What does this fold into?
Amino acid sequence: MRRRRRPAGRRPAEPRGHWFLVAIAALLMTGALLLDAYAHNVVGETEPPVADYGDSAELEPIRAGGPLVNLSGSRPLSARPRPRRVALTFDDGPDPRWTPRLLDLLREHNAKATFFVLGAHVAEHPELTRRVVAEGHEIGNHTYTHADLTAVPAWRVRVEMSLTQKTLAAAAGIHTRLARVPYSSGPGAAGLGQLAAMRLLGDEGYLVAFTDVDTQDWSRPPVDEMVLASLARMAEGEGAVIMFHDSGGDRTRTLAAVDRLLTRLERKGYAATTLTEAVGLPTAHAAAAPDERVLGTVLGFAQRASFAFVGALGWFLAAAGVLTLLRLTLFVALAWAHARRTRRGSAGLPRWTVPPPVSVIVPAYNEAAGIEATVRSLVRTDYPGPVEVVVVDDGSADDTGRIAASLGLPGVRVIRQPNAGKPAALTTGIAHAAHDILVMVDGDTVFEPPTIRHLVRPLADPAVGAVSGNTKVGNRGGMIGRWQHIEYVVGFNLDRRAFDLLGCMATVPGAIGAFRREAVASAGGVTADTLAEDTDLTMAICRGGWRVVYEERARAWTEAPASLGQLWRQRYRWCYGTLQAIWKHRGAVVERRPFGRRCLGYLTLFQVILPLLAPVVDVMALYGLFVGDPLPVVAVWACFVAVQALTGWYALRLDGERASVLWALPLQQFVYRQLMYLVVIQSVATAILGARLRWHTVRREGTFTVPSTFALPDRSVPQPSLAGRRRGAVRGGNAPRRRRSRP
It folds into this structure.
């Protein structure tokens, strides 16, 4: 479609702000994924450290001392639990499954404990942290993500500890002075790496906790083994710090061991209490400042939102994958049924007793590069009835009208009018057409000799109001051409076979379509209400009760955009026009005929919603490749490409095309696919902002050759020609080009 006339000096409103919306959405998505990855210790992940050896004068008193160490002064100080005092400590929580059961068990035994929590888990389950504090237990800082503090820089250590304090402030209104270094055990195993981390923690005011008994319950040893190891430490009535875990896996054995241990300790007269009480120190808790609570609340909300977002993305990816596979399966099955019906022939179908006269309308704007090839192919038809060709020169700035008129071909009329747009040109052509069967074709499209005959045949059925032909890409030599060739055959034409059987054809392409004049008139004619006049007209005809069918044998060869920029402009216009058509005909959803529900539902789901969310697939794929296990990502991608390749092979086979072009299909996933969904995003954003789309034109290259005696080569397939391109450059120059209709 071309730009409409407007008052002098007035420029159409340009879409503004859509890329800003896209950028904001991309930043939010990326931020959510990074926060989720960081909270799960994936971004910046550290593996369990190797043995931390080394000797220094500062390590000796730590190794020989008790399990609670203070490095805030000039030399390390340590403390041990008092006799018959046991400090049960639990690392890595809180966990929504195991922490509540553990708290219930401690309450049954009237015991207290110390929980060294991960800030990420506190942010995810703040209610559990509040319960821990409310029931008199103690909280310690075990970092935010369980990072190995011996392997990260000092700033990361401070961030890990600070973030955990903020989540504690928001969840329970406290700060804690206790800390435990991840992957630590008893003080005798401390090494130089842990010493450096402990110095940092000491400077921050923390007391660093080790353990006397590491039950290693994470390895799921026998329950009696954990109990006996704990009791062995207390053979002489000494106190002890015992390490368990309340998160990170199945803790059934941990619960059983704690239950038995507490029962045995009660019999021996031991008190199970918090770590600070066991060593005779004041509580480790302090009231958090109000600003810390606010920051912690924001952090917790952001993390929970990121978790929910990533979880929703997972469900979306699963749903999108299932829907895509179901769609491919269904459409291949419908295409197979359509092909069988076609092979059975037209027996039993209505036939023309006498071939009706046909008017072919060619709206043309700056089509000097290809108008001669188009007109000659129409005149060369083998259709047995009368055919007139009406070329409407819509105010071209080049020699389009002169070239068409100078051909001197029989049955060809050229009508010139001021530039008013493609809908107006089609309306003019319809008004001047002498016959009631109307064929519409773009000025850059070439018909095969049998095309008109095949295109008109289904109109013998009085219920059929329009017929869609089979559009082929003529300039398929380059990579962009190959991608479009695959898309036309696998996407457009395979879909149209299914739409034919389902009775919900969305578009009779402007490049090749036949219409009954009565059907066009009942639909209100060709309007300029949308940028996709072909989709608008087709939907209106379907809503009027007419059948719209697909005739695969009616082939037309068209010139596809030859550059990514031209392709973007074309698809942006198509997509925006389709959105306009969906909105214009939204009332069809509640009509009695199933067309609206089938057609608009399909377009909304598969051409708007899924493409709109398609970047999620790529983002999650990159997320899996770089911060997760890449093998599942590669496997899923390979599976989908294989399914698409099989679908493409069948679609190409149905169309009589070579399957060798499918080698370009995997590459299509890395450029072409992104271009298509970015077009949808831009179109939707433009529509949301209420902006009017600026008119763009596609430059013609002059794909088809026009020898002195026009003839299509093998299988009537027009071939790309450098000579044709030179002709286009001479005749068409660099003048603006008319908008192309969709295939």
Q: What stands out?
A: The two ends are 14 Å apart (CA to CA). Residues 1-14, 705-740 have pLDDT under 50 and may be disordered. The chain has two domains: 59-302, 318-732.
